[in-house]
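Per-residue structure
===
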Amino acid sequence: MDSFYTPEEVKKLGFRKVGSNNVLISRKASIYGTEKMIIGDHVRIDDFCILSGHIEVGSYVHIAAYSALYGGEKGIFVSDFANISSRVSIYSISDDYSGETMTSPMVPEIYKNVTSKAVRIGRHVIIGASSVVLPGVELAEGSAFGSFSLIKDDTESWSINVGIPCKKVKDRKKDLLKLEESMMDKAER
């Protein structure tokens, strides 16, 4: 048995919309609420990933092993050519840590104050291993993040960012855009 679902099995998972070309989803991934999810073409979701809630993934996207995307109601939107490395956690929802309210999914909503804000991940964004993305963040096109980054604020396009919390360290080259153009030209032939 292959470690990825077959195209027929992927269709049966019940996604709101799913690509028809080269969609590889590990049989070991945990996916909750597929009816709220859109998956593009040329997408790979590796072993032990968790996807939950409203999630939209573009084309040519890789979500590496042990990553978790918690989309909640507001959603996580991953644009084309984005790369999410191993053990990345992306949250569009978060509990209130102030102590003024309770936390836990087992506590009734009236006793909690959950923050819910969309997360937007732009084209050609790369998020390094073990990084954390918090609710409401927009990762601008081409921005890159080193391993173990805490991403709590919007970022500049074509920037390289590292740290806890992450900070821009330099500009990122755009050479890959020429490679994208070449790849897409060949794909259209």
The chain has two helices and 20 strands. The mean pLDDT is 96. The helical segments are 7-12, 176-188. The longest strand covers residues 68-78.
